[in-house]
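ugh ok fine here u go
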Amino acid sequence: MRSWVIVTETFRGLVMAQAKARKVEPRLLVVRHPVGGLSPDELSERIDTAFGKLKEEIGRG
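structure:
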């Protein structure tokens, strides 16, 4: 089973450091920070971005 982690730009480094410590290579879908406290339109944009990246990744696999 393939899986992806949705992460904001700000936390990408932390996710990669944790992955390295656990000897895994995560598949990341990176979106702009922040995600919390957004208007519905702003959140929708983040969701559309993540979904678009996911479709691209699935198409490659």
